[in-house]
């Protein structure tokens, strides 16, 4: 009788594990292949060889790149090189990516930047917020951008128990932001277990010097975050659920869900086209290729444009798609004055004139 019970329990456990594995493959879109959608007038950006996970562009055409992200278990083309922040002036005829100097006292050796966001104060001071993973920990760094010196002055490091696994950030004040946690846990093994079991414990945090709180939760893997041009709505990408959530922002900074847009791809960072309000999405058509790197079968890239997301029938258009022969693992796409920048999790970056 005892052996029969043990075998029954083992069978149930194996069935559950098999079901979870199959579900994970579906969430990763492990069988999906992408058909190429090419753009003319594109070239790879010189100086970006090991990822440009996030990109943010100021209204004057200065683009910031977060480069060199490293995560446990994730492929890297430059595992021993610290990350950095690069800048490109898109008003120039032939713009180049230049690394910004960071003020003394900041630990450059452990700099591991992830999501970024800019904020322009009423006195035109530009702040750059950077999600940082020094030694795979989680902080948010706030810098002041000094344009004349092409440098960043480090102002503050933020750590908080409600920021255990920060992915992306959208600044809404000089020391105020919303941030996504892509996992509930910070421990690598528990992160893997959480993803495997599909617990839906990830969330969005609002941070200010006076208050830190959870403002949205229940996501599979909350990832990219951005804000509508009128500042009324927050957009959140749920990567493994293949969804973009539209959340209404209230005066007390709380959020309530308004709608969910379902897609057929793993959605990463979200950018706003300043000329139209459209959302540009850096996507991963096949997550298994992204996380289990094979140079002979590299991860593909995909960029979507979403028009009228608040309407009953938003328009979703594929702007760019590649099987990895040119660009591997697209994570972000940003546009300025008909110039498109596409960044990747750990590969190159693409510049296109539309």
TrEMBL record:
Q: What is its EC number?
A: 3.1.1.2
One Gene Ontology molecular-function label: acyl-L-homoserine-lactone lactonohydrolase activity
A GO CC annotation recorded here is:
plasma membrane
Q: Per the record, what are the reactions this protein catalyses?
A: a phenyl acetate + H2O = a phenol + acetate + H(+); an N-acyl-L-homoserine lactone + H2O = an N-acyl-L-homoserine + H(+)
- Cell location: Membrane
Q: Which residues are glycosylated?
A: 269, 323
- Residues of the signal peptide: 1-15
Q: Where does Ca(2+) 2 bind?
A: 54
Membrane topology per the entry is:
Peripheral membrane protein
Report disulfide bridges, numbered on this chain: 42-352
What this protein needs as a cofactor is: Ca(2+)
As to how many cofactors bind and how, the note says: Binds 2 calcium ions per subunit.
Give the residues annotated as active site: 114
Which annotated residues bind Ca(2+) 1? Answer: 53, 116, 167-168, 223, 268-269
Could you say which protein family the record assigns here?
A: Belongs to the paraoxonase family.
Q: Under what name is this protein listed?
A: Paraoxonase
Quote the gene name from the UniProt entry: PON2
